[in-house]
Amino acid sequence: MAGIRKKDDELKLRIVKCIDDFFLANHRSPYMSEIATELKIAKSTAYRYVCELDRDGVLKYNGSTIVTELIDKTDDQSQFAPISGKIACGSLTEVVEDFEGFIALPTAIFGTGDLFILKTKGLSMIDAGIEEGDMVVFRRDVYAQEGDIVAFMDRENGTSTLKRIHFCKDQRIILHPENHEMEDIVIPRRDLYHSVILGVAQHVIKKL
Question: Helix axis angle, 2-26 relative to 43-55, nearest 10°?
């Protein structure tokens, strides 16, 4: 009997983790069928265990929505932004795609919109307070203005960089590093058709 109870407890923990992980990725609680598929158990088994967890006070289930402790703590004043990879703070270098999950960003601080996060690599923006290993929050759904810090990408060769952008009258773009030891990157007019601004930097998250 002790072995059966241990297996029951382990499955309950796996179900709670499955619900939390699903919520962080999809911003809603999973259906019973989705829990069953993820954990490779019967839908009826998933339902039975969720009901038991509800009776035990581990989570709340009203017949349609599941609320765990993590979900309950995540209120409507936050939105989730994906950590989408790394971006160079130097010359144009290959994009490093390395999805690491989501971070809940309070809207009172970060606002709303199509937000994503990139970790920085390099030292070209240190005079703007952006150091290697910082996480920069970008908005994708805005147009870059003169002097904005942007994630700039050359789609032809898949390279990107984090720089302050300047628009020239002759339609060139200057990508300016905030490091007096580094030189500007000049993007001529002829190369603009395969260039794209991935997002405009809004905030920097760093460890103290």
Answer: 100
**Is there a contact between 146 and 113 (Cβ–Cβ < 8 Å)?**
no
pLDDT tens, residue by residue, 29-61: 899 999 999 999 999 999 999 999 999 999 999
Q: Is 29 a catalytic residue?
A: no
More confident residue, 94 or 146: 146
Confidence (pTM): 0.65
Catalytic residue among 29, 84, 124, 160: 124
- Nearest-CA neighbor of 42 among 107, 162, 50, 161? 50
- DSSP characters for 43-61? HHHHHHHHHHHHHTTSSEE
d(CA 24, CA 27): 6
142 exposure class (CB count in 10 Å sphere: 0-12, 13-18, 19+)? middle
Tell me which of 86, 119, 121, 163 is the catalytic residue: 163
Strands 115-122 and 78-89: parallel
Long-range Cβ contact pairs of 21-26 (< 8 A, separation 24 or more)? 23/68, 23/70, 23/71, 23/74, 24/70, 24/80, 24/101, 24/102, 25/102
Give me the pLDDT at residue 183, please.
93
Cα–Cα nearest to 74, from 27, 121, 132? 27
Catalytic-residue membership of 43: no
Give CA 4 to chain center in angstroms: 39
* Other CB atoms within 10 A of residue 4 CB: 8
